[in-house]
């Protein structure tokens, strides 16, 4: 009788210890997700990770959603989407910390001219309201970058930036 009770207690302790360990591991993975993802990217030589591919797919969907039926516009959208798919996220991250690299990346991966790309990069690097977005992208923190982008969209900054290119 006494031995049975001891086995039940030790079995419960083992289950509780296992559950606590699993919970701690899950919390650590959530907290350290972006640093782990960045480490995997660095180890693989700058190649995109699975989460990078997911983020990039969402970016492509966002670009594709701008199609409007105009053949010229839709052709440009397809071109930009293809270029974005072929650009490494590590290159995009590096561009977030260097104005000339950002201008070059914009020029190579969008339909913007060289002068427009430089103009956009200059605005994004000189205006402090884009600093949070640049930092998030540079750190590879895609969740924060999305929130920054959404905030800039809501306050009209993104529209203002787009309109400045058109002029």
UniProtKB/TrEMBL annotation:
Residues 96-114 have a biased composition (Polar residues). The chain crosses the membrane at residues 15-34. Keywords: Membrane, Transmembrane, Transmembrane helix. Residues 66-85 have a biased composition (Basic and acidic residues). Residues 66-114 are annotated as: Disordered. This is Uncharacterized protein.
